[in-house]
Each structure stands twice: as C-alpha cells, then as structure tokens.
Amino acid sequence: MGGKGAMMVAMLCLWALSATTEAVVMEEEPGLMMNFYKDTCPQAEDIIREQVKLLYKRHKNTAFSWLRNIFHDCAVESCDASLLLDSTRRELGEKEHDRSFGLRNFRYIEEIKEALERECPGVVSCSDILVLSAREGIEAVGGPHIPLKTGRRDGRKSRTDMLESYLPDHNESISVVLEKFKSIGIDTPGLVALFGSHSVGRTHCVKLVHRLYPEVDPSLNPDHVPHMLHKCPDSIPDPKAVQYVRNDRGTPMVLDNNYYRNILDNKGLLLVDHQLAHDKRTRPIVKKMAKDQAYFFKEFTRAIQILSENNPLTGSKGEIRKQCNLANKIH
C-alpha cells in the first residue's frame, strides 16, 4: 500500500474511532426525557406529587411558592436549582436578591428531597424536584396537568449577578419584558400566559405603593382603589410586615383566566399588569385568554415546558446535590 493509501486508512480509522466515541458519549448523555427515573427511582414523581399534596394541605401558599420557583430559577440562564443555594461568605445567594423579594418556603423543598433520599439516595436532582413541584403546585390550584421531561442535574454556583439581566422588574416596560422572555424562547402568547400566574397569590405593598402614593395612578379602576389603600395604608411599607393585596379577589386560590378580565378592567396591581392589558402587542391575546380558559391553559402549558427546558445541565454536567441548599463538598 502506498503512502497516500496508508494515510487514507489511518484517517478513516481515526474518523471511525471519533464517531464511535461521540456515539458512546451521546448514548451516555441522553439529555432530558420523559420518565428519566423509571429505572433508577421509579417512585420519584409519585413521591414528589404526594409530598406537594401533603404540604399544600398544611400550607396553602406553598403552591404559589413552587410556581414562582420555576420562573425565578429556570429563567436565569439555566434550569439548575441555583436559586436554592444559600449565601456563602464569598457569594450572595439568589434568594437574598431584591428580585427574589417575597420568595419563601424553601425549607419544604428540603422535606421533599429528604423523602426522595430515603427511597433512592443520590439519584433525584434538586432541579427536577423544583420543576416537578411547580407542576404539582399548578395542578393543586386548579391549573392544567403539564407533561414535563426530567434528567436535570444541579449547578454548583449562584447566579445572583445575572438576575437583573434575566428577570424583568415589575416597573419595566412591556418591550423589555417581551425581549427578556424572547431570549429564552418564549413568544408573546407564552409570555401573556405566564403572567396568568398572577391570578393566584398576592403582591406585597412594597411593589405597588408607587401607584397609590403620593397620588393614585389614574389608570387604576377607581372601584378597586379603596381596597388597595385599605391593604396598603403606608406610603413606605415595612418590607418585613405582612402587608399585601390578593392578586385576584374573585378566585384568589385558583389558577384561572379571571386575571385577564381583571386587568382589562384596570384592576391589575402591578404596572406591568396594566401594560399587558393595553399594549397593542399583548392586548389581543389578553382579550382572547379572558374569553377562553382552554386557550390560556394551552399556551401556559407550552410556556412552562419551554421554561423548564431552558439550558439544563444533563449527563455528566453538574451534580446531584445531597442537600438542595448546598453544593456538594468536593473531596
């Protein structure tokens, strides 16, 4: 065999070896899939479902916490449970940042993790717990069942320095909000549907007093203002005080399309709620969702699926934390 022939054979061998190695890696690292734990921890999703139900019976507001968690974690670069990490001497945790104001009930994530560790030690990630508890929380408050893939692994560091780049503030323009959601693959109907989460839970007075003091925002429905003033009597409320307004006075514990009817009636608590109802890009979708709950649920399901699959760590990336609030110690 001549020199050229030998070189060709060597190159083909290298190519075949590289293709085989790549195939093995792909086989080992399948990424997200439905029922990822069917062989390693078949009871995983049932355990999370039961734990969420038990916690919801004891503390109704846990469902709202699970719903906020998926947004605050998955919208910030990666769905990797970085939100759950405690602050360290070197790094402020995402939980402590202003954009995370009002987030709570993290200790109950640990209860779910402990139940899973008793069944299958070191198998189920905190990021999958975070995502699946959100799904069960959505169902607990009357929302749709959302099929979600699993197989995420946990990150090792907080992304506190990135929060403002990814999480919209309640005072930002609808254009900024649309752009931030678009960057993670969520289109305008998906954005409007995710805002339907404001149909449950409550808004702290800190976030809305600028619409009441020193003068009442004239765009607010005048029939709604006395209730808001009664709930938020101070122009500078104490952030630690339990001063808040229910997002939806009609069905405060139900995820439904009443939110859209409220904001069309100028009863949205946040400035961004008001903009959503009146901006020409979002108003037609708001009106459609106000009339058609099935359409709202369809778009909400799609948006949650996209959010839950945002740039996850899979395969050999990341780790399976032993405790959700702490990265594993590296020996």
Automatic annotation (TrEMBL):
Keywords: Calcium, Disulfide bond, Heme, Hydrogen peroxide, Iron, Metal-binding, Oxidoreductase, Peroxidase, Secreted, Signal. Its main location: secreted. It catalyses: 2 a phenolic donor + H2O2 = 2 a phenolic radical donor + 2 H2O. The keyword Disulfide bond applies. The keyword Hydrolase does not apply. Its cofactor is heme b; Ca(2+). SUPFAM superfamilies: Heme-dependent peroxidases (SSF48113). It comes from the Eukaryota. It is found in: Secreted. Residues 1-23 form the signal peptide. Its EC number is 1.11.1.7. Residues 31-328 form the Plant heme peroxidase family profile domain. Binds 1 heme b (iron(II)-protoporphyrin IX) group per subunit. InterPro entries: Haem_peroxidase, Haem_peroxidase_sf, Peroxidase_pln, Secretory_peroxidase. PANTHER family: PEROXIDASE, PTHR31517. Removal of H(2)O(2), oxidation of toxic reductants, biosynthesis and degradation of lignin, suberization, auxin catabolism, response to environmental stresses such as wounding, pathogen attack and oxidative stress. Belongs to the peroxidase family. Classical plant (class III) peroxidase subfamily. This is Peroxidase. It comes from Brassica cretica (Mustard). The lineage of its organism: Eukaryota, Viridiplantae, Streptophyta, Embryophyta, Tracheophyta.
